[in-house]
Write a structure and sequence with these properties.
By secondary structure, the protein is α/β, with parallel strands linked by helices. It folds into two domains: 46 residues, no CATH class; 127 residues, Roll (CBS-domain), CATH 3.10.580.10. It has seven helices and six strands. The strands form two sheets. A three-stranded mixed β-sheet has the order 1-2-3. Strand 4, helix 6 and strand 5 form a beta-alpha-beta unit. The longest helix is centred in the N-terminal third of the chain and has 16 residues. The radius of gyration is 21 Å and the shape is globular. The chain starts with a helix and ends with a helix.
Length: 188
């Protein structure tokens, strides 16, 4: 397999490893570059899309988690009462948290204080109601190896980033966590 073919296959494998979906991936391998213009030969494009293994000057999510103020991961479970979730958020000073399934093994979503507030203001349910209807999917999942520079775009579509390693939540990153990490990097 030639150099360009190897790069294409390596890029497809890297994409497949990062993707959380089961999908078929088709790799087209041109017979030569003379008649084709391809992003495979554009190092800038390859770098911007994470296909070249160059270190990110901003670091990885693992580095961000190590630099973050260490406190225990706070989560709740489907079926918990609104009153208990409010107390948990207040006691730990968090505004959003992961919600695990009833077995505590899989992420069901997140619950945010804005949803709890709406629930109480609009009288949709009482304090003893389960949080199940308030669980939302406004989060993204990354691994510790994810490059920090990718988080900016991830936060365009998600309120919170959940860091998972081998199906276990190892941390949560909020926008202020990212801001503090980047500000600290600038000071250094």
């Amino acid at each position: 397999m030639g150099g360009s073919s190897g790069a294409a296959v390596a890029g497809a494998i890297k994409y497949a490893e990062m993707s959380k979906r089961k999908e078929n991936i088709l790799v087209l391998l041109p017979d030569g570059a003379q008649k084709y213009l391809s992003k495979i030969f554009d190092d800038k494009w390859m770098r911007e899309n994470g296909f070249l293994d160059e270190p990110d000057p901003l670091g990885t999510v693992a580095e961000l988690l190590r630099a973050k103020k260490q406190r225990p991961l706070v989560s709740t479970h489907v079926g918990e009462k609104v009153r208990d979730v409010i107390a948990l958020m207040r006691d730990h000073g968090v505004s959003q948290m992961p919600v695990m399934d009833r077995d505590g093994k899989r992420l069901a979503g997140i619950v945010a204080e804005v949803d709890l507030l709406k629930h109480l203001v609009e009288g949709e349910g009482g304090l003893d109601a389960p949080i199940d209807a308030l669980v939302e999917s406004d989060y993204a999942t990354v691994t510790p190896a994810t490059r920090v520079h990718l988080l900016r775009n991830i936060f365009n579509d998600a309120a919170i980033v959940v860091v998972e390693e081998r199906d276990t939540i190892v941390g949560v990153i909020t926008k202020i966590d990212l801001i503090e990490f980047l500000a600290e990097r600038r000071r250094a």
